[in-house]
Amino acid sequence: MKNLDRRTFIKQGGVIATVFALPLSFNPSIENKEMTEKKHFDVIIIGGSYAGLATAMALGRALRNVLIIDSGKPCNRQTPHSHNFLTQDGKTPKEISLIAKQQVLAYNTITFFDGFGTKGLKTKNGFEVQTESGDTFSATKLVFATGIKDIMLSIIGFSECWGISVLHCPYCHGYEVKNEKTGILGNGENGFEFSKLISNWTKDLTLFTNGASTLTIEQIARLEKHDIKIVEKEIEELEHINGNLKKIIFKDGTKTSIKAIYTRLPFEQNCSISEQLGCELTEDGYLKVDAFQKTTTKGVFACGDNVTRMRTVANAIAMGTTTGMTVNKELVEESF
Ligand SMILES: Cc1cc2nc3c(=O)[nH]c(=O)nc-3n(C[C@H](O)[C@H](O)[C@H](O)COP(=O)(O)OP(=O)(O)OC[C@H]3O[C@@H](n4cnc5c(N)ncnc54)[C@H](O)[C@@H]3O)c2cc1C
User: How is 82-139 classified by DSSP, letter by letter?
Assistant: First the structure.
């Protein structure tokens, strides 16, 4: 399947129907001969998940030559089912990105390169990007759709449960664990606010502060008023089966059963090229963009999780579409 010419493949029986019949290991990346023939593009998009593919679709429809460089590690890859995205509710993350990739690569001016962008520099005509594999590409405009890297907590079992029963967002996964015995792993203002929000989905809620509480007296009183329990014991391990939580084991040897835990993790940017090009970050560590997804470096754009805490597939795609339209407008303005 990998050697099949892209256009021949698309001709065979309709994209959507075909995608769902495909094995998930199918990788619709471009063929290398196309890569070696063409090294300068209108736009390079680093990151080929939801935000990057949405940017590419808008640009492909605007007849732009686009290179997508993607290392294939979207942040939701461990999640069994993705929710809250219209038309694709309950699909696996891979199913959604696979159909997106197929639809985007149906535009002949779009090229997909499996690889990791490591270096970027400003040139006379735009930008140059180097990949880990040693390839170099150039483009007039550059888009970062690179997402963020969640930094896992050093609790045994935590990373195995991430995205399965340790959750970041109730809108994505809360319905599936509604009314279940649920924990919040957090402290202080964040822990309080998250507990308040999650009390909408379950009344069997405990805030695990994993050490001495930093809640205020008022916050404790409000949590108690809503029957939200507070446990300050330090956590040793999350006992689980294939990422599905069974028990929290505390450092003092005691245990409690639990169905799901919500937590907000620290993060860092996935890609250092934006920093190399002088793109500024917000105080919270997101790439700073304006309403049109322009970063603080001229000619460089960013969209998706790397610019916002409103972290959903729908939002990443909306921002990607805006980015594609803005980039094309800028190219039109510069050449007209
Ligand atoms: C565990 C979890 C579960 C989630 N569940 C849901 C859900 O059910 N519903 C929902 O709507 N949202 C969900 N989300 C949020 C959603 O997954 C994100 O908002 C969305 O993936 C963001 O898309 P993105 O394209 O910005 O980034 P990502 O999807 O994270 O993709 C970034 C891409 O950039 C690539 N990349 C990064 N740096 C480089 C580089 N230097 N060179 C090349 N490629 C690079 C990565 O490999 C990756 O493919 C979930 C998030 C998490 C963490």
Answer: --SSTT-TT--HHHHHHHHHHHHHTSTTEEEEES-EEEEEEETTEEEEEETTS-EEEE
